[in-house]
Amino acid sequence: MKKSASCLIALLVFSCCVYAELQEEKWKTIFLKYLPEDSSKESVEMREYFKKAPVEGIYPFGAGICEALKEGQHKKDILEKSYYHFWGVPASDAMYKASIEVICPEYKARR
């Protein structure tokens, strides 16, 4: 009985890890979709930078947006105070859109 319970727990932990990785990859795909697609040097460089960036390096910023929304902050405050100065407006806006689409869709109405 103990062995089967241990196996079940291990399976649940593994499943959660796989789900989290899939969600992170989905978030990055959606994030890349929302980046500007024009041919300006800045946009091209930004897209290339984020395509190469490991998901574990940028996903926490998307999760942070959802955490701030959960705490009652508004989009404008979150982005202007914590994101625009670091990532710039286009990337920050793309992060926000991807986050409310993939990580915390319950906050879509707060746009």
UniProtKB/TrEMBL annotation:
Per the UniProt entry, the signal peptide is: 1-20
Keyword Signal belongs to the record: yes
Keywords from the named record: Signal
Identification of the protein by name: DUF732 domain-containing protein
Q: Which organism is it from?
A: Nitrosococcus oceani C-27
